[in-house]
Amino acid sequence: MNNLESYLFVSSVLFTFGIFGVITRKNAVAILMGIELILNSANINFIAFNRFGNFEVLDGHIFSIFVVVLAAAEAAIALAIIINLFKNVGTVDVDEAKELRG
Q1: Which range of residues forms the domain containing residue 90?
Q2: Tens digit of pLDDT per residue, the chain (102 long)?
Q3: Residue 8 sits in a domain of what CATH number?
Q4: The total number of structural domains that make up the chain
Q5: Angstrom distance (rounded) from CA 6 to CA 37
């Protein structure tokens, strides 16, 4: 059970759940969690292809660390936007964000 296909299957399931969460949710925090699932599925792919690709260098691990750093920055900025949305509108519903337009 320790083969590339099992890792790709888990990654595709996470990616599908992430896309489903981004498309169907109206809550900004739930959308942010869907984006995090998508990024984690990409990390699984990076690590799996590095593990089973017979590479001598750790490129998959380096890309995975880069994605984790980007996810942390994205989460910080997105949470700041969500807090600003809640302060101005009183809800984190993304349909209400249209009121913030000029």
Answers
A1: 4-100
A2: 788 999 999 999 999 999 999 999 988 889 999 999 999 999 999 999 888 887 778 888 888 999 999 989 988 998 898 888 888 888 888 777 776 655
A3: 1.10.287.3510
A4: 1
A5: 17
